[in-house]
Design brief:
Length: 391
């Protein structure tokens, strides 16, 4: 069995084997922990390995030799209509633990199903009906047809936008409904989306630099770059196999007291459409809770907690904060936590306790959140504030 282990084929072979191993590891973790995102990330890594395979095999000499050529041309390596929706569902399940895959989500996979049927017809016609390569008479792999590659690129761009939209919706809803938003805005999803955008940009650049996708040309560097990004995604995704404890469905209930669907998510943020009320009495009541009851000391304080104590709806509290203070709920509560820390410093407690201990007493739940909120509201880091005022 001839296989040329040159630099290009060997490099890509490493990444193909890596994709196979990590897809199995993620699948195992998904089964053991009943972790939905890991199922979808496993599928993405597996299909990414298939995506790289034609060029790994091509540089090894298999695509140019028989009998491999007649077999490999009919195998659907490049799942360009499958990778983008798999990525999208992964992001949805990661950001929203209440997300469930239902029949309408199969619509995302209709283009892939159509291309699969087309590939199956080509295979059956050439191998069983005509018994000669009618569809491959030109010696070109159909997976690298310009129409398929361009349409696949458009699909990836579209689903990348949908992934970003889901992330920003999640981010805005968390800021509007919980006081610990930083704790649930885990960094992995940000890095994943950056890697996804890099894949999209790389593919766009190589379309311009080397449009002849049915020839090997300079595409090795694109597939090597793609492999490195997938390598990063698979390792980081495995290590950070977590899922948000915050659900968009829960956020919807907190914000408007009734469930919503995906199309209505963005409407939660349009507080300007709320019914006009006299804000000042409500502001006084809210400030009394913050100052007298010190409810900000609860590190898991939510919009519904405040609404219950004010004997009103979460929607009304959100309106009061948005319009009366021009802040979101998260920033509003962290402002009072920051002011409480400053009061502790003025009282000299920083000489008895560490700043972090004081911050935890005031309701912050992490050092990074404390530092970020303190600088946002004072324009200084905690250490800078101490050095300028107390040393």
């Amino acid at each position: 069995m001839y296989f040329s282990f040159d630099f290009k084929s060997s490099m890509l072979l490493i990444f193909v084997l890596h994709a196979a191993v990590f897809s199995m590891l993620l699948l195992s973790k998904a089964i053991q922990n009943e972790h939905k995102p890991s199922y979808w990330l496993s599928a993405f890594i597996f299909f990414s390995g298939l995506y790289i395979s034609p060029f790994m095999l091509g540089y090894a000499g298999w695509y140019s030799r028989q009998p491999y050529r007649d077999i490999l041309f009919y195998f659907p390596f490049q799942q360009l209509f499958l990778l983008p929706p798999v990525l999208y569902i992964y992001v949805k399940t990661l950001l929203d633990e209440s997300f469930t895959f239902n029949p309408r989500h199969f619509l995302h996979f209709l283009p892939w199903f159509g291309y699969f049927v087309y590939s199956l017809i080509v295979f059956v016609t050439d191998k069983a009906v005509l018994d000669y390569a009618y569809f491959y008479a030109d010696g070109m792999d159909k997976d690298f047809s310009s129409w398929y590659q361009i349409t696949g690129f458009i699909s990836l761009a579209t689903y990348s936008i949908l992934c970003l939209r889901s992330y920003f919706t999640y981010k805005e809803l968390s800021l509007q409904t919980v006081s610990f938003a930083d704790a649930i805005m885990f960094g992995w999803i940000k890095r994943f989306l950056i890697a996804l955008l890099m894949i999209l940009i790389l593919r766009g650049l190589f379309f311009i630099l080397n449009p002849e996708w049915d020839q090997f040309g300079k595409k090795f560097w694109y597939y090597l770059s793609f492999s490195i990004l997938v390598y990063y995604i698979s390792i980081s995704g495995y290590v950070n196999a977590i899922q948000s404890i915050f659900t968009l469905k829960t956020a919807s209930v907190l914000a408007v007291s009734s469930p919503i669907n995906e199309q209505e998510e963005s409407q939660l943020l349009k507080t300007a459409s709320f019914i006009d009320i006299d804000i000042e009495p409500w502001k006084n009541k809210l400030e009394a809770l913050m100052i007298n009851e010190k409810i900000y000391e609860n590190p898991t304080l939510t919009l519904v907690d405040v609404a219950q104590q004010m004997e009103t709806s979460p929607k009304r509290v959100s309106q009061i904060i948005n319009q009366g203070y021009e802040m979101n709920f998260n920033d509003f509560v962290n402002l009072y936590r920051t002011l409480a820390v400053i009061e502790q410093i003025k009282s000299g407690n920083h000489s008895l306790l560490t700043l972090l201990a004081i911050a935890f007493e005031c309701g912050f739940n992490s050092k990074s959140t404390f530092n970020r909120a303190f600088k946002k509201h004072t324009k200084l880091t905690p250490k800078e504030y101490l050095s300028q005022n107390y040393y």
